[in-house]
Amino acid sequence: MKNTFDYVLPNEQGFFGEYGGSFIPEQLQTIIDEITAAYLEIRQDPAFVEELSELYRHYVGRPSPIFHARNLSAKYGTDIYLKREDLNHTGAHKINHCLGEALLAKKMGKQKLIAETGAGQHGVALATAAALVGLECDIYMGEVDIKKEHPNVVRMQILGAKVIPATHGRKTLKEAVDAAFEGYVKDPVTQFYAIGSVVGPHPFPMMVRDFQSIVGNEAKEQFMEMTGGLPDNIVACVGGGSNAMGIFSAFLDDKAVALHGVEPSGRNLDEDGEHAATITKGQPGIMHGFKSYMLQDAQGEPMEVYSVASGLDYPSVGPQHSYLKDLGRVQYSHINDAEAIDAFFDLSRMEGIIPAIESAHAVAHAIRMAKEGERGTILINLSGRGDKDIDFVAENYGKQYGVMNIL
Questions:
Q1: Model pTM?
Q2: Phi, psi of 11 (to 5 degrees)
Q3: Region 15-58+94-205: CATH code
Q4: Domain 61-91+213-401, what fold?
Q5: pLDDT (tens digit, 9 = 90+) per residue, 9-38?
Q6: Are strands 330-336 and 290-294 parallel, antiparallel or unpaired?
Q7: Which amino acids are annotated catalytic?
Q8: Which pLDDT tens digit goes with each residue over 284-321?
Q9: Domain boundaries in the chain?
């Protein structure tokens, strides 16, 4: 098995093929270069690796288990397994990289962590990490998502974070990233921007992937122990793409393992602004300091995007995903809102596991694969739990699925 942080790509300039890099103002690049140097040094430090490993074990509760979803498997005719990242402390995979970034920021002498969040899981995880290591924390979140994901907003505030609304555009994830970047450039010396996915300028796509690689490393060992072999298929949702890169990373050299990334096709894949299927419908472009596939208008500006899942509505994607798409190593497909909500209730009512709506996109794709005749094993990265989504689902889909307000 590879060491946790043992990867060939990106190159020294942060490129995965033609994607990635760092396209930011020169004065900010100096600060980012310091972060790169600090990270490259610290990831080789046995004391740092051990400190992070101890937190994973005794704070996060790792390793997260793999569960054989027997009821779902029986219904759809193939063996479906779940990598239970929803059981982590804070309820999702996000805590994996937030702890790493918080420790790095602390060792660099930073005073404040800042970040964007969509569904709120990254915000909660970073607020948690900030409280643990004793740093201030500002979380930028779109006004729409603040209302939609209210339970996570309350969690962040209880943990001591300041939640700052993004009030422009569609007031969702892309706008939260815009606002966080604006906040960061005002003081990049004392603040550390803990980017919430495998996006942004180098070294963040590499760094977040490295911290998330524990998911794939665990899954590979666990699945082999459970079944005597590797999964035939691995499925993960893709917005920015951190949970997917986390689980894919350990299997990239295992050509017999098919990797499936699932984007949100929202309400209408053929209408601009009604989906966030970046790899499916986008073209290479530059935004937020890196080059990758992105949904863009004729002037090269980011398009408005939409998904029922607040954590997936981003008009670009991690550069390594773009590279893997061009190589053909990962197959990228899409699931619409209705399919995701169906899968949300299917998993809830057949296995007693309420998934995040983001993760439900991956569940929906696995179900589709089984319906279309896939009989090999399917391992889903269940990247988060759905506590944050239950009020939204009840309000918008309750009548359809028999969830009634009895108060």
A1: 0.95
A2: -80, -175
A3: 3.40.50.1100
A4: Rossmann fold (3.40.50)
A5: 999 999 999 999 999 999 899 999 999 999
A6: unpaired
A7: 94, 116, 383
A8: 999 999 999 999 999 999 999 999 999 999 999 999 99
A9: 15-58+94-205, 61-91+213-401
CA 99 to chain centre: 15
Task: State how far the Cα of 191 lies from the Cα of 138, in Å rounded to an integer.
Answer: 10
Amino acid identity, position 217: N
Average of per-residue pLDDT values in the chain: 95
Supply the pLDDT for residue 27: 87
CB 246 within 8 A of CB 367: no
**pLDDT tens for residues 98-117?**
999 999 999 999 999 999 99
Three-state DSSP string of the chain: CCCCCCCCCCCCCCEECCEECCCCCHHHHHHHHHHHHHHHHHCCCHHHHHHHHHHHHHHHCCCCCEEECHHHHHHHCCCEEEEEHHHCCCCECHHHHHHHHHHHHHHCCCCEEEEEECCCHHHHHHHHHHHHHCCEEEEEEEHHHHHHCHHHHHHHHHCCCEEEEECCCCCCHHHHHHHHHHHHHHCCCCEEECCCCCCCCCCHHHHHHHHHHHHHHHHHHHHHHHHCCCCCEEEEECCCCHHHHHHHHHHCCCCCCEEEEEEEEECCCCCCCCCCCHHHHCEEEEECCEEEEECECCCCCECCCCCCCCCCCCCECCHHHHHHHHHCCEEEEEEEHHHHHHHHHHHHHHHCCCECHHHHHHHHHHHHHHHCCCCCCEEEEECEECHHHHHHHHHHHHHHHCCCCCC
Beta bridge partners of 258: 233
**Is there a common fold for 15-58+94-205 and 61-91+213-401?**
yes
Tokens of 176: 């939260």
